[in-house]
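Our consortium's second objective concerns turning raw sequence data into structural hypotheses that experimental partners can test. To show how far this objective has progressed, the report includes one record in full. It was chosen at random from the queue rather than selected for favorable results. The single chain below, 359 residues long, was entered without modification.
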Amino acid sequence: MNLKGLSVMKTLAGLLFLLSFMVVACSPSPDKTVSSTPEVRTTPVQVGEEKTQNKLLVVTTVAPLTNIVSNIAGDRLEVKGIIPEGTDSHTFEPRPSDADLLSKANLIIANGLHLESPTEKLAKASKPKETKIFELGSKTITQEQWLFDFSFPKEKGDPNPHLWVNPKYAEAYAKLAAQQLTTLDPAGKDYYATNLKNYLQRLDALDKATREIVASIPAKNRKLLTYHDSWAYWAREYGFQVIGAIQPSDFKEPSAQDVTKLIDQIRQTGVPAIFGSEVYPSKVEEQIAREAKIKTANTADDELPGTGSANAIENTNPEHTYIGMMANNMRIIASNLGGNPDLAKNLNTGNVVGPTATK
């Protein structure tokens, strides 16, 4: 072979060596694989990352109902309340966004007894055909047990709807809610039964503490004059007399003649305090208290104490619950009527599910 041929052979050999080196360098190592499919996530889904639209939706109305229902529903269902806290539930007009929420509801739970008439009207127009509207109040007492009073006169036909202020009726609400949630989600039957059992224990403790607090109030002071007439069913259960309400049945301020009558009534009955409401701030209430020389304090019937969410799963404030609201009411009533407010201090006001759940 001449020198030229030898040179060509060396060049070819060099190219072959270089090519083989490149193939080895580009080949996968034994501990790696090459795949055209995307990487599959293997880490667990974090709490709250699951999309809520995968859960059945239960729509409620006022905050106490939302809190009671969500304590039973726990994290198996999505519970949404429509009526904002601090809003007059009797006159609340639903927003366009509420129609959208109601159109997605699998179950709607209301109080009934004509409390949320505009909301129920919108619900009937917006909800899916198969979605039930279930009224807790209407299924808790019969028409013969309805109470009519100062803010809810019989001639107008609307009974007092504030059943939940009575803890015994709140127990009935919880039981009815558990039945409806189980019908909606039969697979959660045992879960709802456990939550109901735990929640009824809390409500029973509230009932017992309420009876002790009432017993600590002198009998002559077991009278209520309120701004909004929401204590009728509570008074019937616990042996109080509701002597009147400042707010008339049209939910406006009372007339000068009404004010004069109330002041005379206060002087005759010797009631030591007026119980108003932050939802219904009133200068007339202050005027009556000043002229009658009595104390005034605010209670609540559908606004939970402090800040937080009425939904038990979302709430981190153990006072911002239905039981927290009623415990706070008992302290206020006892303090102003000569009773012992400390009898409410040992009540467990937290939810039985969610961040505030305790044993």
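The partners drew two points from this record. Residues 189-216 form the longest helix (28 residues). The mean pLDDT is 85. Both points have been shared with the crystallography group to help prioritize constructs.
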